[in-house]
Amino acid sequence: MTTPEQPLTLAAGPGTGAVLLWVALPYVALAVFVLGHVWRYRYDKFGWTTRSSQLYERRLLRIGSPLFHFGILIVLLGHIGGLVVPKSWTEAAGIGEDAYHASAVVLGTIAGVCTLGGLAILVYRRRTVGPVFSATTRNDKAMYVLLTATIVLGLSATVAANLVGGGYDYRETISLWFRGVFSLRPDPDRMTGAPVLFQLHAVSAMLLFAAWPFTRLVHMLTAPLGYLTRPYIVYRSRDDRLGARAPRRGWERVG
What we know:
With about 260 residues, the chain is mostly helical. The chain is built from nine helices and no strands. The chain has helices at about 15-45, 60-85, 85-90, 95-130, 130-135, 140-165, 175-180, 190, 195-210. Helix 2 (about 60-85) runs antiparallel to helix 4 (about 95-130), helix 4 (about 95-130) runs antiparallel to helix 6 and helix 6 (about 140-165) packs antiparallel against helix 9. The chain starts with 15 loop residues before the first helix and ends in a 44-residue tail after the last helix.
């Protein structure tokens, strides 16, 4: 039986299971994420797209898409602030633990609800609108399952630990493990002491990032910057008869 001082975990102690989950899996997910995008961009450039379904239905899309993208942007910024920025930096900036905790919980909960609500609308639209559902692949369905699981687990962890429970300072455990992965010094003990919902959220996030390069999520890593510098496209009619009216001066057909 677990106690508040000894939370339920996926892998207790620095055994083989903990090493696989918190040392091996992060690097496997990172390698697949990076190499998968390189492969996808090199061999599947024409498939590097969201496969937009806006032409099939717009009403639900106009509600669900902005709600989801707004929420996920705030969630991303919150994760960067909580996992990447050390606790000592925020304290040096004059942000105490109570103020940081309150703002993180409030903004995180609002962003999580917006993200989950927008995703629910998009999934409902994809399931109930015939043409959109017909354009949905098995790959899309698997991606939606992983994405939904990650969001639900993250929101559940926030609510369970901070709103229902007595609070949990993940910057003393999960953040240190996360930064240790990138400094090549991952400490699995940091994660084995975290509550099970935070562990499940971390595992689902790593699986999502491993699957990312092979889904429509790749569009989040691109921006149409080429449109800013590409030359204008000139369209000319092949018809001898250009219209009922004579062309204006300067617009006569050439050659």
